[in-house]
Amino acid sequence: MRITQSDVIACEKELAKRSLSEFLQMAWPAVIPGDRYIHNWHMDAMCEHLEATARGELTRLLINVPPGTSKSSATGVFFPAWLWGPFGMPHARFIGASHSEDLAIRDNRLTRSLVQSDWYQSRWPTEFEKVSERYIETVNAGFRQATPVKSMTGKRGHFVAWDDPQNPLGSDSDAERDTAIRVLTETLPTRMVDPELSVIILVMQRLNEADVSGYVLENDLGYEHLMLPMEFEPERKCYTSIGFEDPRTEDGELLFDKRFPRHVVERDKKAMGSYAVAGQFQQRPSPRGGLMFLRSDFEIVPAAPSNIRWVRAWDFAATDDDPRAAWTRGLLMGMTPDKDYYVADVVGGLLSSGKAYKLLQETAKIDGIRVDVSIPQDPGQAGKAQAKAYIKGLAGYSVTATPESGDKITRARPMAAQVEAGNVKLIKGPWNKAFLDEVTQFPTGKRKDQVDAASRAFAHLTEKPSYSLSSWG
Question: Of 137, 346, 431, 472, which shows the fewest CB atoms inside 10 Å?
Fold first, then answer.
């Protein structure tokens, strides 16, 4: 029996209809003819979740995978072409967004090349109303639009795919992260054809604990989370609601060893450094054991010795309106004559200045007069006036107010050296986990309040304070 070209086309059409992954593998040469395609199971995983959005099973999807794994091509190039052709949704409206206009246009161009190719047209003939580097529109009113998210106005999509919400070069910029999160919460929801059924897809590598992915996960915004690190970590194995689970079983097993073999991964890890490896490779924006502080360096003990000097150090925040804002923290630390340090308690929360002042007074009463109190003095006359008022409200206690000197990392280094040496211990308590979670993500973590308070306490115990109650006259 002779197999004809018509037979081949019919077979490919059926395979593509059944599977986005099969379509991608067949269509790859039409998009990137000089680039060898190497298939791996992670591509099947991404495609299965994209298919689930097309079927209406998922309306929110977050994909965290390492760079170089074709996440942009799968999501922004092959998926919209698959929707129009094999899936049979020629009216699908697709908005492809990125932090960079150049990246958004790049993927639109590749989609245009694919749907206009002889290979695609011979299988799924498609007529177009408009074709440009930024915009493709079918005669069925389907379209693919390329846009930087900051100017995402006018059109609405059945699918909005946001690829790399933030430039990796600006990963430590609070302003850039805040802008990206405002786009996520205020702009993307308004770009939906149907608020209930339309789809938002976020695809990115992790850059910071407080990046878009971190915000989505912490606030439980209803996104299915497909998370595939470069090296497998059993305690973080990914499961999703569509029945997927990461097939790897061995700690450290590579994601894509045909493209990223062990020697390449190890070479790149040395060049990237632990911060970048943790975020971009492992999709966990802090190294497994921690950054400046390692979890294993903190010993948890039942109690502190009796011959100890105590201080409660505070780090204040001024608002309770924004869940991303810093928290007020009051941390109790003690030092023995042999220079061992004990963290005994942490109090605080997302508090207004009035509530923080009340907590300061209440905690001082509980701690007693033998516990020093150390508070920050913000620069300027207003900061000095606030510190004076706080000290006045703690009459009878030993209170000092000092300005912060240097950045957060510089202030934390003296204590970090003692932690690494095993000289800082934690008194067992319900606050331990939250404290360790925060300090082991420092300095890339979203919150740094407990580290700031601990740094202040350590400085108070090891240095003579520069301001005291008598300083205010």
Answer: 472
Whether 361 and 393 have beta carbons less than 8 Å apart is answered as: yes
pLDDT recorded at residue 121: 96
pLDDT tens by residue, 365-411: 999 999 999 999 887 776 788 888 899 989 999 999 998 877 788 88
Distances (CA, A) of 395 to 187, 228, 364, 370, 374: 50, 55, 10, 13, 14
Q: Cβ contacts of residue 101 below 8 Å, gap of 6+? A: 146, 147, 148
What is the number of residues in the chain? 473
Q: Across residues 5-28, what is the average pLDDT?
A: 93
Cis preceding linkage at 443, omega within 30: yes
Give residue-wise pLDDT tens across range 30-53.
998 888 899 999 999 999 999 999
Q: Are 416 and 443 in contact (CB under 8 A)?
A: no
Q: What is the pLDDT of residues 57-92, one digit of tens each?
A: 999 999 999 999 999 999 999 999 999 999 999 999
Tokens 């109690």 map to which residue?
303
pTM of the model: 0.69
Q: Which run of H or E residues covers position 98? A: strand 93-98
Nearest to 425 by CA among 294, 301, 266, 288: 301
Element (H, E) at 188: none
DSSP secondary structure letters along 382-418: HHHHHHHHHHHTTTTS-EEEE---S-HHHHHHHHHHH
What gap in Å lies between CA 386 and CA 122, rounded to an integer?
A: 74
Q: Where are the beta strands (DSSP E) in 322-370?
A: 328-335, 341-349
* Pairing of the two strands 159-163 and 199-204: parallel
- Please answer whether residues 211 and 177 qualify as being in contact, where contact means their C-beta atoms are separated by less than 8 angstroms: yes
Are 119 and 32 spatial neighbours (Cβ–Cβ below 8 Å)? no
Rounded to whole angstroms, how far apart are CA atoms 288 and 63?
20
How far apart (Å, rounded) are the C-alpha atoms in residues 277 and 264?
13
Cα 301 from Cα 279, distance rounded (Å):
32
